[in-house]
Description:
Blueprint: H1 14-42, E1 47-52, E2 55-60, H2 61-110, H3 127-163, H4 171-189
Antiparallel strand pairs: 1-2
Helix pairs in contact: 1-2, 3-4
Amino acid sequence: MKRTWRRRNYFIKKDLQGKYVFMFFIFVVLGSILFTVLFALLSSHTLTVVYERNNLRIGLTPMILLKEIIRAYWLFIISGGLLVALTAVFVTHRFAGPVYRFEKTLEDLIEGRLNFQIRLRKRDEAKELAERFNKMINLYSTRLKEIRELADKIKRELNTLQKGDVITLSGDALDSLLRTVNELRMKLDYFKTDHE
């Protein structure tokens, strides 16, 4: 039966996502400040006349405009900042989920589990990396299965040799055992370690 509900947890990796949401927000704030400073520099030598509630004010354009913008559009500024932060949460969710999944995958690999595949959501980033992880997991799982089969074969042949008389040991049995050990060694030589 297919699940009709979906769990929605948009803060998967709080530290990573929080950092990027903050960076997005700071980027927008710094961009707004830069725009305001540039506008103030370009209009610093001009005067502006403001008529408000039967009052006529004359002043430098940058200061009057800044006051008017903050007074008139503070709600839009706050809601725009929140919208940027919310958008950043959704955007970061698409790569924070895969990062979390890759961390869990590495933990599983460290613990020796090779009986799984990485599955990412439809809109997640890093699907190519997940495919490579899956390819590696499949390869290692297959190699390990082959090594286990060869080890079982060696064990069976040694049990057969142990039951038989060593004096009457045939050359074919020893050749078969040696071939299996060599095959096992070839499978093991696939893996490169820094302990060699």
